[in-house]
Amino acid sequence: MKKQLQTQTSPVLIPFLTVFFFLMAGLVVRANAQCSTQQTPNGNRSICEGGAVSMSSRIAGAPSDYIWEWEKDGVIISTVENVYNATTPGAYRLILTRKSDNCKAVSPNLTIVTVNPLPDAIISLAGPVEICPDGEVTVDAGSHTGFQYEWLKDGSMVGVNPTYTVEEGGSYRVRVTDTNSCVDTSDILLVNDVQPPVVSLSLQDTAVCAGEAVLLEALVSDPDLLFFWQHGQ
């Protein structure tokens, strides 16, 4: 999940040429008329771990007519046309030079100040988990002030609290969004529905005299079951 940032504009003037530097982080630079620059103040941005600020440009004419120089902290880091993805802290800008007359336009800096870590999206139970009919199990993703929680079953949202009570089989995940709008999704917890075993008793004689014993035998559908005998109801 990424924040929507307000768009700022700054004119850059170049003769007989209209150039648009479009920074998808929210910064727009327009060039037209003369080779002079009016810059707005630097913009500061934060990104999430594994994320990027995608900076791109749009020009009138062929991209090959220009020299593209993407800078970070004053050092050229890329000469790829049209786009650069910034993933680490630093001050970025684009220098665009027209080859025919060496006319140059410079965009305002886009400064990435912080790379925020992702929240921990971890389910308290390790799978697979088995539940019987009418059974349930509670799973927990921890609790942090200001965080948002989305529990997903087979890809569909089923809960929005730090804990969730599972009552049926399926593939469960939790998606956590922190106060920086950074998002992480947990591994899948697989929950299986299981049917209770079928048990019947074999009783040879229902009449028992005092001091005698009768043999009870449990006939079951699964030989690996554990047995607990109970007297009474």
Short description:
The chain is an all-beta fold and 233 residues long. 0% of the residues lie in helices and 49% in strands.
What does the model show?
The chain is mainly β. Helices cover about 0% and strands about 50% of the residues. It contains no helices and 22 strands. A hairpin with a 2-residue loop joins strand 15 (about 150-155) and strand 16. The radius of gyration is 33 Å and the shape is rod-shaped.
Q: Could you name the key traits of this structure?
A:
233 residues; mainly beta; 6-stranded mixed sheet; 22 strands; disordered N terminus
Tell me, rounded to a whole number, the average pLDDT. Answer: 77
Helix/strand/pairing class, anyone? mainly beta
Q: Please give the largest β-sheet.
A: 6 strands, mixed
Side by side, the strands of the main sheet go: 4-1-3-2-6-9
> What is the N-to-C succession of helices and strands?
EEEEEEEEEEEEEEEEEEEEEE
Shape: rod-shaped
Percentage of residues assigned to helices: under 10%
Give the end-to-end Cα distance, rounded to a whole number of Å. 56 Å
Q: Per DSSP, what share of the residues sits in E-state strands of 2 or more residues?
A: over 45%
Quaternary class: single chain
